[in-house]
Amino acid sequence: MNKSVLLISSAVLASTITGNAAARDNISIVGSSTVYPFATVVAERFGKTSDFNTPKIEATGSGGGLKLFCSGIGVQTPDITNSSRRIKASEHEMCKNNGVTDVVEVLIGYDGIAVANSVNAQQLDMGTKDLFLALAQKVPNPDGSESLVENPYQQWSEINPALPAIDIEVLGPPPTSGTRDAFAELAMEGGCSQFELIKNLDKALFKSTCHSMREDGAYIEAGENDNLIVQKLEANPDALGIFGFSFLEQNSDKVQSSIIDGSIADFDAIADGDYVISRPLYFYVKAQHVGTVPGIAEYLAEFTSEQAWGEDGYLADKGMIPLDDEERAAVGMAVKNLEPLELN
Amino acid sequence: MNPLNNTDKEHQTAAMNASTENTTRSTTATVRASLKKRYAAEKRFRLYGIIAISSSIGFLFLLLASITSKGLPAFTQTFVKLDVELNSEQLGITDAPSAADLRSANYSGVIKQTLRDRFPEVTKRGEKKALYKLISTGAQYELYDRVAADPSLVGQTISLWVPADDELGAIIKSDADLTQPDSITTRMTDQQIAWAKTLKDAGDLDVRFNTTFFKNGDSREPELAGIRAALIGSAFTLLITFTLSFPVAVSAAIYLEEFAPQNRWTDIVEVNINNLAAVPSIVFGLLGLAVFINFFHLPRSAPVVGGIVLSLMTLPTIIISSRAALKAVPPSIREAARGLGASPLQVVTHHVLPLAMPGILTGTIIGLAQALGETAPLLMIGMVAFIVDIPASITDAATVLPVQVFLWADSPERAFVEKTSAAIMVLLVFLILMNAIAVMLRKRFERRW
């Protein structure tokens, strides 16, 4: 009995090792977990309404996705990578060095990062400056002297008298999360660059000052799971949470967005650029795979169709903020012609 | 004999007797005194044990109760009855449509028209959009399936039960009072709830067993999401794991236990097997990525790679338990067999191995159960992925049950909470089944000496 099992297993191994060079018949997509919920909707529709297989989508993170994407040409490498930031020049260089010369960039829309609390609590109205003072590890000395001190603020009212006198308690993503990176870059940096003292620091020190979150318990790393943050906000009306816009939308009966620099995180404010904590979402396509792996051109057509990424499209229903008409027309054209990306 | 001596001796014995009596008395007293304390200590220890066990049972019960209560609604689904008029003009097809025509026909338009006909008072654009949201986007695919199966339906009016949207579904399943929309926590508007009430009063809303959950792969619409793809993926992965790790591990165990000479090399091998059992599973994932995907170019996200990686992970578990099982076979069996002229290989294959089999199988199933619950190594080889199509072979892209749980737990749609718990329940059922098989095999074939 042992012998036959051994034979079978070695046959299985041998057949898979020899048979792997066969072409792939589904699109392979990797990349950002922020784009994942949108890309999966398109992929599912595409699979159901076309004769092609449903694309396979992995959430590897933007950086991890680009690394896989740029590792070379061929069916064992992904065809598309999603990214919640633009490709870096260094990554583009790496792509080129590995033979991935024709990369098409597709800007698909925007994502907002919401600062929110329970609907049973008072809606907060603050600026990114207040957010920075509440959450940074080091802040300018409140007594006015030109130095940075450990964050002394315990209550919102100490930062801004207009805010309520409740303890600062913010639940947010851990450093491994892309949402955290984006929050640090958009909200924290936006707030801290309003201080002359920090602005004049050298580049590395500026970044570390702006991006370091306090570690004395006022900022609580609540894990990667945004649903968990929403649940905790529901239980604790005094706490504030930081999470993706789509989670705010799905839970609008439980949590409300705070007003940041004059506008709340809603569809129109993010689309118009009034709400500052928002970021562009991209995906990158390996043009050299179009024609090799079946369905890429059709997938692109589905993604850039009005019923998908349009203002009333199904991606908007899922919480993605669409581009405006002109941007859509321009990006759509570039995608149709598979114009390769040129970074200066 | 010297009488004096004699009396001396008597004195001595008497003195000795007295002293032993003294010490005996004091020991008994000490024992008696400490007895109470010792009984109390034992009682306390028993109490600690009972507290430990009952608190772990309590937590287990809490966990199971919370998972079950959250997950049970996922096994039912709300359906809406629609009387769909399959107008070929509306569908955008000719009266004699080809298969391709049928595929690209405008089913969603027909369903929207049906809803508008049902509620003719809805005219504003925003209201229409809200109305369409009562029905799952899966309705159009359901309609297509019906028409594709029987193209003669075109031109007729058919009544069709289609899945409701996840939010409407949740309200109906929770048996909320639709006459009091304010009491319901939902994102649905009062108007939508009023429409739902109309449908319900007409008997066009029904809660049924959720077959979709067992028939479909993953979906971004909670009402269309299912665990089929993950289940099949798990099955393929475990199959590979079993076919690779079982023969290798058992052969290794037999060699090490029955044939290998006792020297430094076998010692090193033994130590390393034990160490391997303690290596974090993510390390095996990294190895899988580097060796099987990057070097052997096996397909990414495929159960074959997942199975190989997990079999590396389960190998030490099976080897260690198989060796223990082989060791437990009494030497007299081997000696008797050898005495009757059996060769060493015959001793093993005819006598030792069959007797050790229950233990070996128990170890194997425990190892496989561990592999069934693993996600970390699969992350590295691309099995943490959105898979809609049911995998048909071991080289198709697939995912596994625990990964499906992880992906659903991270989805913004609230209805995925119940799907997450339901998937956990399915996973638990499989684990319990596997463990039950292990217990059964042991009970059935176990021999006591």
Keywords:
heterodimer; A: 344 residues; alpha/beta; D-Maltodextrin-Binding Protein, domain 2; 9-stranded mixed beta sheet; 3-stranded mixed beta sheet; B: 449 residues; mainly alpha; MetI-like fold; 67% helix
Description:
The complex is a heterodimer of chains A (344) and B (449). Chain A has 2 domains: 23-110 and 279-336, Periplasmic binding protein-like II (D-Maltodextrin-Binding Protein, domain 2); 112-278, 3-Layer(aba) Sandwich (D-Maltodextrin-Binding Protein, domain 2), CATH 3.40.190.10. Helices cover 40% and strands 18% of the residues of chain A. Chain A contains 16 helices and 14 strands. In chain A, the strands form 3 sheets. In chain A, strands 1, 2, 3, 4, 8, 9, 10, 11 and 14 form a 9-stranded mixed beta sheet that branches. In chain A, strands 5-12-13 form a 3-stranded mixed beta sheet. Chain A has a two-stranded antiparallel sheet with strand order 6-7. The N and C termini of chain A lie far apart (65 Å). Chain B folds into 3 domains: 3-72; 75-214, no CATH class; 228-445, MetI-like (MetI-like fold, Orthogonal Bundle), CATH 1.10.3720. Helices cover 67% and strands 5% of the residues of chain B. Chain B is built from 18 helices and 4 strands. The longest helix of chain B has 69 residues, at 3-71. Chain B starts with a helix and ends with a helix. The chains are: A alpha/beta (344), B mainly alpha (449). At the A-B interface, α1, α2, β2 and α11 of A face α10 and β4 of B. β2 of chain A pairs antiparallel with β4 (385-386) of chain B.
